[in-house]
Design brief:
Length: 155
């Protein structure tokens, strides 16, 4: 799995605290990208917070745009924590993928994240699936949804 540190260049002219922050962030977020026909799958592990959310957003968005995949699946099984910065990053990814007429699906949501999405109402805006395989099978070959009714979780 890649880490946040793999995605950043060496800081030039920054303080030691910045370097420590980057190293600390690298220990808290891991990701691995898998490409399948019509679909990009990003497996995440660790914490999505203020120090890691933007890097995750940039990585997932870049992967989706580089491969023009109609389906982007974010495997959340390894996510241990997600704060409001993480939620903001998920919303930004969803908007970027939809703007290109694609589908964005969160798969294997931990209970903690499922509760957060439910309480914030985001479960009605960001699609989810019980499994990565279910997300790929159900969504990779279907046209992108239009803005509309609440989406349910699929297996």
């Amino acid at each position: 799995m890649s880490t946040v540190a793999d995605q950043q260049q060496e800081p030039t002219g920054s303080s030691r605290s910045s370097a420590r922050s980057t190293a600390a962030a690298a220990d808290r977020l891991r990701f691995h990208t898998e490409r399948r026909p019509g679909c990009v799958i990003v497996h995440l592990g660790g914490e999505i917070d203020f120090t890691t959310a933007e890097i995750m957003r940039e990585h997932v968005t870049a992967e989706a745009m580089a491969h023009t995949a109609p389906c982007v699946v974010l495997d959340m099984a390894g996510v241990e924590f997600c704060d409001s910065s993480g939620l903001g990053a998920l919303i930004a990814i969803d908007k970027a993928v939809r703007a290109r007429q694609g589908r964005f699906v969160l798969a294997q949501l931990p209970e903690m994240l499922r509760r957060i999405l439910n309480r914030t109402g985001l479960d009605g805006h960001i699609e989810s699936s019980i499994s990565v395989q279910g997300a790929v099978a159900r969504h990779a070959d279907r046209p992108a949804p239009r803005q509309g009714p609440r989406r349910k979780q699929h297996s």
